[in-house]
User: What shape does this take?
Amino acid sequence: MAITLAVPDTYGLVLAAATSTFFVNTFHMFRTAKLRKASNIPYPNAYATHEQAEKDVNAYRFNCAQRAHANFIENQPSALGALLISGLHFPVAAAVLGATWSVGRTLYLYGYTSSAGPKGRTFGAYIAGVADLSLKLMAAYTSYLLVAGK
Assistant: This one.
């Protein structure tokens, strides 16, 4: 049985939300580069050593930026997949949740790299986490509808 997918008229909103994640990645890159420079951690070192981070708050914040960026990269593919799939059936809701995910991930980055350190990421993690779970549930339901031929 062939399935014909009709992209909803408002699917452009889904694509706009997906595109926002590329800019969040760019925010991560700039923030990490700024903190790398401030901490004088040379390339190719991915992180400051434990000793460097204990002595220099900039080195510690650089490590936080690196970890926030790695966490973003770990989560972006599944969030994008869920956004693009759920947007086939729920385009406006998916777009809003996708944009919410991007805002949450940006708050996560700036909270994590603030003077609060890892504790500063909690608010952004909560926002992004709720949006992410919602997108995944909507994607599962959309997939079910496609498999069931509904």
Summary: Residues 11-148 form a domain with the Four Helix Bundle (Hemerythrin (Met), subunit A) fold (CATH 1.20.120.550).
